UniProtKB/TrEMBL annotation:
Family: Belongs to the small GTPase superfamily. Rab family.
Membrane topology: Lipid-anchor
GO MF entries: G protein activity; GDP binding; GTP binding; GTPase activity; metal ion binding
Protein name, as recorded: Ras-related protein Rab-17
Cofactor(s) listed in the protein's UniProt record: Mg(2+)
Superkingdom of origin: Eukaryota
Keyword Membrane: yes
Amino acid sequence: MAQAGGNPRSDGDSQQPSIFKVVLLGSSSVGKSSLALRFLKNDFREILPTLGCAFFTHMMEVDGKALKLELWDTAGQEKYHSVCHLYFRGANAALLVYDIAKKDTFHRAQNWWKELENEFQPEEIVVILVGNKMDLEDSREVTFEEGKTFSESNKLLFMETSAKLNYQVTEAFTAIARELLQREEQHGG
Ligand code: GDP
């Protein structure tokens, strides 16, 4: 059912950077909006305002190449399962986020992965599994190894992050961007 996954858009001018749609997926309160806020504005809030808009664009440069990321945040919509297919449509990449201090969110992330697998061919989408809130080490319920093992067996990128401490947030988005550019190059984009 995937429509345009794996095909970055450009404005028809080869000088223009490619545009990639990146969706943020995961249970409620795992820190999806916080990761976006940290990445886009280098800011963190204990209480996030309800976002009127769940769509952001961000220009970045990786290895000397410019690209534009369109970030889609569910903004609470993850509760409504029926929106998923529209939300996924045309995605080039996904951040699959869980909270390292909540085991159930790790299981939910695994379920999101199954849904992505049903929607996309592996070469159509870049997926990074993100264990967020790694500052909550004392309450950790998901080990680093569990995250790593799941990601390796499903060929996903993997990183533990803290939006709060600004740990590995830019790195997670950069890893996605680098992989997207590499795939584009391989396919003659
Ligand atoms: P979302 O529902 O997945 O978008 O989650 P939010 O970004 O709204 O975050 C939910 C709560 O977790 C908020 O109170 C955030 O301040 C908090 N939070 C987000 N990221 C982190 C983190 O890395 N560490 C800690 N300790 N709290 C975080």
